[in-house]
Amino acid sequence: MAILLTSNIGYEPKMKNDENKINDEDKLVESICSDLGVLFQAQDDYLDCFSDPKFIGKTGTDIQENKCSWLICKAITLCNDDQLNQLKQNYGINNDLNVSKVKSVYNEINLQEHFQIFEKELFNSISEKLKTLSKTSNQKSEILSYFLNKIFKRNI
């Protein structure tokens, strides 16, 4: 997403002198775009598991397809040994019972709450970076703020 976002806004980092170093503003823009990409992908993972299929237009299949999503990565850091074993035994199996067991572990560890905290913290971090960027380029800050506001809490 960061690459697509920077190309969609016509952004190309400028090189500083002949040293082939990217200047501080460019580094900040790249950092913001990267964070926006992480936020978007984490939301996509969340929506795949927890949203109404009518909203996303399909039934989520990340669990069945053994995808390395934000949810499973965070879950393994929160699980006790029994929960971790449940995930190992059931994640990546295309069967409703196995998916149900994975989602049960997700609920036991309050994964939805952890996601909401992550999302808010990342939003705040990006917002702070945008404030810093606005001091040198209000136009870039406004464009990236538009994208942040468009994706933050997108029907979650």
Task: Describe the protein.
- There is one protein chain.
- The protein has eight helices and two strands.
- It has 156 residues and is mostly helical.
- A two-stranded antiparallel sheet has the order 1-2.
- Helix 1 (2-8) crosses helix 2 (24-50) and helix 2 packs parallel to helix 8 (138-151).
- The protein is elongated.
- The two termini are 20 Å apart.
Write the layout of secondary structure elements.
Layout: H1 2-8, E1 15-16, E2 21-22, H2 24-50, H3 53-56, H4 70-78, H5 81-90, H6 96-108, H7 111-134, H8 138-151
Antiparallel strand pairs: 1-2
Helix pairs in contact: 1-2, 2-7, 2-8, 5-6, 7-8
Outline of this structure?
The chain is 69% helix and 3% strand. The chain has 8 helices and 2 strands.
Q: What labels describe this entry?
A:
mainly alpha, 2 strands, single chain, 156 residues
Shape: elongated
Gyration radius, in Å = 19 Å
Strand percentage:
under 5%
Say how many strands there are: 2
H-E order: HEEHHHHHHH
Low-confidence runs of at least 5 consecutive residues: none
The span between the termini is 20 Å
SS-based structural class?
Answer: mainly alpha
Percent helix, as a range, is: 55-70%
Largest sheet: 2 strands, antiparallel
- Oligomeric state as shown: single chain
The largest beta-sheet arranges its strands as 1-2
Instruction: Average the pLDDT over all residues and give the rounded result.
Output: 88
